[in-house]
Specification:
Radius of gyration: 15 Å
C-alpha cells in the first residue's frame, strides 16, 4: 500500500481543534471542492508561499472551494509549531482558511503527508483528484513559473480532467514526534 493517498481514494475522516478553538470534522466542510493542505509555522517553504496560497484561496472561493490547513508537526521539534503559536500566527496573518492542529499526527499519517506544504484536492464526493505541491518555487515566490495547485483547480472547476494530478511536494519534511527533524517514515522515502 502506498504511503500517500492515491488518486480516487476517499478523504480520511478527522476531528481536530482549530485556532478558532472549535473542533472540526471532515463533515463540517460542505463545499463542492475541498483542499486540505499540510502546513506549519516555521518552514521557509510554507512562509515563502503562504501569500500565493492566499491568492489561490481568494481566487477560488466564488467557485465553492474551501481550504483547510493542518499542522501536524511536533512542537518538541520546533516550538514555533505549537498550537499556541498557531493561534498567534493566524491572528497576525489572518489567513482565509481554517487552521487545524494534529498533535497526535494521525491525520498526517492517514493522508500520507510528506512535506509542508503538501496539498490534497478532493471533489464533492471527497475523492482525491490532485496531490502534491502548490507552486514550483515555494521558497522564493518571485521565481514561480508554475502554480500546480491553481492549474489543477482551474481544470477541475472547468469540468476538465486534471492534466497533472500528481506532483512531488516541495518543502520541509513533517516533524515527527520523537524523531530527528529530517526523518521520514521508511515507506515514504522513495516517493520524493
Amino acid at each position: 500500500m502506498p504511503f500517500t493517498l492515491e488518486i480516487g481514494q476517499k478523504a480520511v475522516p478527522f476531528e481536530l481543534l482549530a485556532t478558532d478553538n472549535r473542533t472540526y470534522s471532515l463533515d463540517d466542510f460542505r463545499s463542492n471542492i475541498l483542499v486540505i493542505f499540510f502546513t506549519c509555522n516555521h518552514c521557509p517553504y510554507v512562509t515563502g508561499s503562504d501569500e500565493e496560497t492566499r491568492k489561490t484561496v481568494d481566487r477560488f472561493k466564488e467557485k465553492n472551494v474551501q481550504f483547510i490547513g493542518i499542522n501536524s508537526n511536533s512542537k518538541n521539534t520546533y516550538e514555533e509549531d505549537s498550537f499556541e503559536n498557531m493561534i498567534i500566527r493566524m491572528k497576525e496573518q489572518n489567513f482565509p482558511w481554517h487552521y487545524l492542529h494534529d498533535p497526535e499526527q494521525i491525520t498526517a499519517l492517514n493522508y500520507g503527508a510528506l512535506k509542508t506544504p503538501h496539498f490534497f484536492i478532493f471533489n464533492h464526493e471527497r475523492n482525491l483528484v490532485y496531490t502534491g505541491r502548490g507552486v514550483d518555487s515555494p521558497l522564493d515566490s518571485s521565481k514561480i513559473k508554475v502554480n500546480n495547485l491553481e492549474l489543477a483547480l482551474d481544470e477541475f472547476t472547468s469540468n476538465d480532467l486534471i492534466s497533472i494530478p500528481i506532483t512531488n511536494p516541495i518543502g520541509c519534511s513533517i516533524k515527527w514526534e520523537g524523531r530527528d527533524s529530517r526523518w521520514m517514515p521508511p515507506e515514504a522515502c522513495d516517493l520524493i
